[in-house]
Amino acid sequence: MNDTASLLRELNHRSREVFRRVVEGYLESGDPVGSRTLTRTMNEKVSAATIRNVMQDLEYLGLLDSPHVSAGRVPTQLGLRMFVDGLLEVRDLESTDREQIDATLGCNERDVTTMLDKVGAALSGVTHGASLVLAPKHEAPIRHIEFVSLAPDRALAVLVFADGHVENRVFQPAPGQTPSSMREAANFLNALAEGKTLGELLQGIRAEIHRRRQEIDVLAHAMVESGLAIWENEGEPQERLIVRGQANLLGDEAVPTDLERIRVLFDDLERKRDIVEFLELAEQGEGVRIFIGSENKLFSLSGSSLVISPYMNADRKIIGAVGVIGPTRLNYGRIVPIVDYTAQLVGKLISDRG
């Protein structure tokens, strides 16, 4: 951001206006913007030749590019970054957008996941992009844990929470597990879990296993390790990322190369590859953040942009995030307040549920 700020300061008034109008024209139409178009919209009367010279200077700085043989220019990723950081005018939230979001969230769903699924559908509908919703971890105290053998290489872990919420996960136990070792593992965990949330249990379990290693059977120890592993790292976030509106990125006007990039993006999302990076985005501070193209590893191959905002619980702790994915030619000025409002509303709804 410091690089784009210094670049912006280097531009004189005319260069800055030409740059701003090229970017705004491109974001509105998706087409390269030519000098003749700008002569009709500039605040001062300048010739097309003068504007072409300014465009060439901006291209030399890496802010604009001229696609193919077109006489017009489009912003580069660096140019979009500078525009977003220094020249973007964020609008007030439009009343129609607010009403659509409010109507969907007013469904009064008891289940948080169902509510967040509807939030994602509303967000993709309002923005005509794809939405991402990162659901909060379940923070209620644990009431009971059980392991059930399904086959020699498959077992079911069941968590019952004090608020009645139940989570079931199928996982692969260590070889040699028996019903006896599963019961021993469950008894060990239940003795530790009383009154603790899942996060608190996971924090303390490793030290407790180390202290009591001699007391717990080797197979039961392996059962505890493999059973708990499905709630952290790779397993747990997979259940928390809700993606809606993929079809919005596959419009009729998309060219084959764009379609392929978008397929790569959603193939990544289906596998939840680089999900740790997405989780980190939600925890890097308050407010809406904009990631353009390769700035975010999760979307680097697809050339997409992500507008994301974390949401908080009643204790002002970040517990999840909402976001919109679209082409780099997003209407950022409109999308930013929509994402910001939705994040604040989700935080309030979750806080009101206790």
TrEMBL record:
UniProt-recorded Gene Ontology molecular function terms = DNA binding
> Where does the Winged helix-turn-helix transcription repressor HrcA DNA-binding domain lie?
11-76
InterPro entries linked to this entry: GAF-like_dom_sf (IPR029016), HrcA (IPR002571), HrcA_C (IPR021153), WH-like_DNA-bd_sf (IPR036388), WH_DNA-bd_sf (IPR036390), WHTH_HrcA_DNA-bd (IPR005104), WHTH_transcript_rep_HrcA_IDD (IPR023120)
The Heat-inducible transcription repressor HrcA C-terminal domain sits at: 115-336
Recite the UniProt keywords alphabetically.
Answer: Repressor, Stress response, Transcription, Transcription regulation
**Which biological process annotations from GO are given for this protein?**
negative regulation of DNA-templated transcription
Q: Where do the coiled-coil regions begin and end?
A: none
Give the source's domain of life in one word: Bacteria
Protein family (similarity comment): Belongs to the HrcA family.
Protein's UniProt name = Heat-inducible transcription repressor HrcA
